Amino acid sequence: MPTNASSRKLLTLETLGISAANIYPAFVFGTIIYLIIVFCNLLVLITIAMSKTLHKPMFILLFNLPISDMLGATAFFPHLIFSIVTQSRSISHPACITQAFLVHVYGTGNLLILSAMAYDRYIAICHPLRYNTIMTPHTLIKMIFVMWFINLSIMSVLFMLHARFKICRTNIVDLYCNNPSLLKLACEDISVNNYYGFATIVFVLGVPLLIIMYTYAQILRTCVMTNQPDARRKAIQTCGSHLVVFLMLEINTVFTLIAHRIESASPNSRRLLGASVLIFPPFLDPIIYGLKIAELKQSITLLLRRNLCSIKL
For residue 4, what pLDDT is reported? Predict the structure, then answer.
């Protein structure tokens, strides 16, 4: 367990570099972005929950993505907004550990959810006659449970390993707390953490990438061979948006992690990449899926119209 001294220590996050004249514009901008993220993701969640036509494996798996996105955004934005107003970058050690844990749960969760969604699309497009047999409610529940169990188990072990260390430094080298920046505070041998962290990176980034590569290769092959233009167009449209979301998160995460391990890497570039992982996917995911998936777009439109009409009445 961490020592009482470690628990009481205040850590200092990297400065935001906002001048006094720009404090309130930055506060308003950050607040608006966070509210948009929460609103759009909640809209997707509520639409899927309330629309019986969306109670299908694809959308039930998608239901998990806004949850993960809001988790990541909430881990990042409230403290950022508070820091802008108070002009203080201090954070307690327990709060820093909590933020880092939630940030990593978000990133890992998104990759696992997107992998499960890719598998669902693979079965739907490549084995349509067996889809209802394979993607049963029981299978769906197992998939969702396994995704979150693996995610929470891996991240719990990762951050329990931090409990062994005494803190010798107090400066977090990033705009938010994360595993690599926390390790740089330790004054003891961190070899075990590095080995476990490397194994985690290989699993969390490698397994979803392999699943995506295999499923999309099979989907592309099926789309090329099919003689139904409408089915081909719908499949490519759905899978295209899914692939954009996955690659955006995967590439950004890979470059951020690499930048932490290369001494010559620009700190500002690393911080920018790290922050973008927590800003762009939660902001863009509901917009991409809401606009590109016809069924979801129609259901969102109907839900909004229904509520607007009830307000007018």
Answer: 47
Cα 47 to chain centroid distance, Å, stands at 20
Number of domains within the chain: 1
Q: Which residues of the chain fall below pLDDT 70?
A: 1-8, 227-238, 264, 310-313
Whose structure tokens read 């229904």? 306
Tokens of 108: 């890992």
* Helix ranges (DSSP H) in the chain: 4-8, 23-50, 57-62, 64-86, 93-126, 131-134, 137-160, 179-183, 191-225, 229-261, 267-292, 294-312
Q: Which residues contact 95 (CB under 8 A, 6 or more apart)?
A: 79
Q: What is the CATH number of the domain that holds 200?
A: 1.20.1070.10
* Angle, CA 221 vertex, CA 220 and CA 225 arms, to 5°: 115
Could you give the CA distance from residue 212 to residue 239 in angstroms, rounded to a whole number?
10
> Contact 185/167 with Cβ under 8 angstroms?
yes
Residue linked to tokens 């948009």: 36
pTM (two decimals):
0.90
Which residue range(s) make up the domain with 81?
4-312
Between CA 117 and CA 190 the distance in angstroms is 36
Burial label, 231 (beta-carbon count in 10 A; 0-12, 13-18, 19+):
middle
Other C-beta atoms within 10 Å of 83: how many? 22
